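S1.2 Input.
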Amino acid sequence: MAYNSLKSCVKDLEANGMLVKVTEEIDPFLEMAAVHLRVYEAGGPAVFFQNVKDCRYSSLSNLFGSLERSKFIFRDTLEVVERLIEIKNNPLSALKSPIKNGKAFVAAAKALPLRNPSEKPVLRNTIAVADLPLITHWPKDGGAFVTLPQVYTEDLRKPGIMNANLGMYRIQLTGNDYKHNEEIGLHYQLHRGIGVHQTIANELNKPLKVSVFVGGPPAHSLAAVMPLPEGMSELTFAGILGGRRFRYCYRDGYCISTDADFVITGEVHPQQNKPEGPFGDHLGYYSLQHPFPVMKVNKVFARDGAIWPFTVVGRPPQEDTSFGKLIHEITGNAVQQEIPGLKEINAVDAAVVHPLLLAIGSERYTPYAPATQPSEILTTANHILGTGQLSLAKFLFITADNTNKVSTADIPRFFKHVLERIDLTRDVHFYTNTTIDTLDYSGTGLNSGSKVVFAANGEIKRELATEVPASLKELKHFENPQLILPGIIAMQTKKFTSYN
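S1.3 Output.
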């Protein structure tokens, strides 16, 4: 359905029994987040908070809380988007089935962003940061955060919307040393689109103009988090998925999403950082306070009756789990198309998606005899760890399977297959002193640490234990050994405090 605003989506969901309204006054400090967490855990509907304490704006959460609801929101365009991505990956398929692809080509007409539309609802009100719903999610958070932003930046060397980046990076609105209403904090990995743009601005010794869009048609939020194929713009994707061209204009040199509910504009100046965080993150613990770019606020805009969308992250599963399912639904085998030899990959949600990848590759280099040790899958592993968000992985387990009896979706069977074949003297490969996820605190410094690849192939080498060995029940400093899967045992120990 072609929603022209977040409000129209809210009305549609309510009419179809997929949204509940909370009319009682609710506190943005911890209470709203607590309600969201309970509703999501119960598999509940989207939640519209009509009366936010000390704020004139309403708020919305759990919008993408289930795959079924997300598919309902994009029910008129999802099939077309999937087809266009398939065509992008395999252009010849379009020539072979021109009639079948007719709808996709018509939908592609919505891809080109529309500049200076006659209506610019988001510019009707100029407000302050303090007027926003300042939602604090977890007790030790450094302040209020934006958790569903669309952060827009341009390349100063190649300005314009078609070379822009739209990403979802958390924004800290209050707390720490930020000047109230004048400064907010940005948090992102340096290799992401906005980080590349900031590096260019720093080299030119110029401030980077940043626009933070909040709300608007749901397709805009999804576009900001999509791992799109190289060369596909987030703004064009938003237009196709939303069935409505992305509408924008410029004000004071800043790009404005005119359909957004809120827009915060400002500048990031070279080498001007301030402490950001802590923040209760999707890894299941607090990401700590570190210096990150500070954005000097220019103006804040809001449409009449604006709605503030938010989500709460924490130990999975959470709403971003459902986000991930929708992304997989849309992209299909796009990653496999990008990485030759890759048959399957699974970013395991229980491990918070990024840290643990399971993959199945091909062994085509030894056609004259069965491969007895990993070969091509090591090349594939290197390609995986150098690709987009997959590069944030901490552990990668990869195998080859020419029988099609193993799937990364069947996690117990996958691990059984790998552990039966792995040679621990040969098949464990460490990458030290390399970049890791900014949110990963297992290394000795921010953005720096190690990764490991477990690559197994060939014949079965061992029979896996299916019960806890007696010797593990007699260890001095470990207790309560439990069999998790065949060949995998978990044990408890006392809290580690020192090397002594």
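S1.4 Remarks. The longest helix spans residues 319-331.
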